[in-house]
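Section: Multi-chain targets

For targets with more than one molecule, the full set of components is provided together so that the structure can be written out for the assembly as a whole rather than chain by chain. Components appear in the order listed by the source. The example entry contains two components.
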Amino acid sequence: MTVAPLDACYLKITSNPNPSVPKPNNELVFGKTFTDHMLTVEWDIETGWGIPEIKPYGNLSLDPSCCVFHYAFELFEGMKAYRTKDNKISLFRPDMNMKRMNKSAERICLPSFDEEELIKLIGKLIEQDKHLVPEGEGYSLYIRPTMIGSSNGLGVSIPTKAMIFVILSPVGPYYKTGFKAVKLEATDYATRAWPGGCGDKKLGANYAPCILPQRQAASRGYQQNLWLFGPEKYVTEVGTMNVFFVFEDSKTGKKELVTAPLDGTILEGVTRASVLELARQNLNPSEWEVNERYCSIYEIAERSKKGELIEAFGSGTAAVVSPIKEIGWENEKIDIPLLAGEQSGALTKSVAAWISDIQYGRVQHKNWVRVVAEL
Amino acid sequence: MTVAPLDACYLKITSNPNPSVPKPNNELVFGKTFTDHMLTVEWDIETGWGIPEIKPYGNLSLDPSCCVFHYAFELFEGMKAYRTKDNKISLFRPDMNMKRMNKSAERICLPSFDEEELIKLIGKLIEQDKHLVPEGEGYSLYIRPTMIGSSNGLGVSIPTKAMIFVILSPVGPYYKTGFKAVKLEATDYATRAWPGGCGDKKLGANYAPCILPQRQAASRGYQQNLWLFGPEKYVTEVGTMNVFFVFEDSKTGKKELVTAPLDGTILEGVTRASVLELARQNLNPSEWEVNERYCSIYEIAERSKKGELIEAFGSGTAAVVSPIKEIGWENEKIDIPLLAGEQSGALTKSVAAWISDIQYGRVQHKNWVRVVAEL
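Its structure, encoded as tokens over all components, is:
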């Protein structure tokens, strides 16, 4: 028996009879406003992928015994489409998201799909709603591809039905006034991920348990928590982002950009990978080292005391880079310097510019940018 | 501002106009058939718990940005109602499930509720569908209280809306021919739960990642996997059940019933607690020890070689007790004896009888059994 692959050529489009007008940029709240259409494709273990449909944005109707409600058969991606100066709409490294989405699916026995076909379908969806892609630096269209198990029944077993849906949200900069450096509380009473677990996959299961430590950090005046791991108290991630530190050796003057290695406990961030690639390409190796290595909160505290901790930032699709100005750790406060009168350090600012220049088409990058629509 | 507590006195009932007739017992598949009605109650962070409703079983309609689909804001309970010889329908230790449900909710920032009120509401739901509670040893009504986050929007934050729903499934014995001893494969390449995680809570997040190791065990001829933890390779759970081992000291003849301690990585099973309580009450302490302690796969293999491993079983609401006859571990097979011509050891059989005698009302137990309907 053959099962059907995901195939964009069967796409069926039903237009929304009530097209919306774009909201003013200043009314956009992250992930709260959605466009007129959504993409859905259903899968069945016997027949494979069905007809992809673009249709008016609307509710999903599911049996209360559906496995997505009980056993967290769900995963997602976060991507963005950018409107360039010459009115093209382009995706940033969609191949990376699709690859990760298939890896997430494999980990929880949801179906795999042809990555290029889903990129094509997402392109068609964006084409349909292209008038709602906001214009301006820091504005973009957030794209949320999601896959859920949709078979009914309470036995804990492999889903026999699933669904991909994609929704689009016009968004502004994560912080309205550009960068705003955040304060983190280091968390060692809760653990985000573990070897042999699934913390490197973008599963719903990794997110709900993150809220309590975040909330507790917030109650003490911190915007986010910083996840530590193990007796060594290695720094792993910040909230739901990857995290980078910049050190400067006080003797040699040599600088180091550090992030946690992909050991199975770290989300394989697309922004993380992009920061590393751009840093390796743009920074002078006689002045800089770029390292994926373990780094403990003890090292960070110690190097801060020696004046060697010079920057820190989180990286993720939503905020791109998010500068860090302070870490609360036990009863200490680890201060992280910012440029005078600004909300980030020098490298953080450069990294943000390198990436946004590519995203908004001011710097051409053939492999990372894919145009999906023109206005 | 006061928010409304969950209150059963506001219950609104809408009867299903098409009541179903009970299926023959031999057609009941676990968690596949549901009764005519469901219970729903919605919650809002501003106003608290709304009107509880019993209404015809039917689909949930949710926005595709609903947080349950993206961040696994979901938890559940598994309970059973039993039909006794004198045609009463009773719940087994519902207070334990309600307490655990609130602990699960707290862990992922979903709302708490008055436990007695939800038991009352579940009782009313069962009353409504009491003609569908199957009769006979091993048959019961499986009850699935579920709570989901239901607010819309893609920001990872505390749900501002939630919903409890309860559905009912008439079920037969987990294995049609009574007990059937299972073979387990010990898993050390994947980890179910870890300190600082949430493996002790009944969250959806703990279940989807369990399927892959189960599937891999099945591909090698094992019905379930046995979860190990850490470099010590402590035995923690079997599939989605707690696990017990019985040892007999070859020198002293003293027996020991062992299960993993509640250290935050072990689901706080109601059946587990009941097995421990009944064993402590019914077994002669001069012959038996009942211990919650760490026990490694190395100890199990070693004691098997010495002939000291005499029984093993899983415990959970669905199967009650599930005898184990073999564990595959690296290239070894650890054999576990069964009674001649039977599918379990002697203690496993006794434990199953102790519990089912209480569940079916053959032995009275005031604190553990609550009658909710009469036929």
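Residues 180 and 343 of chain B are 5 Å apart (CA to CA).
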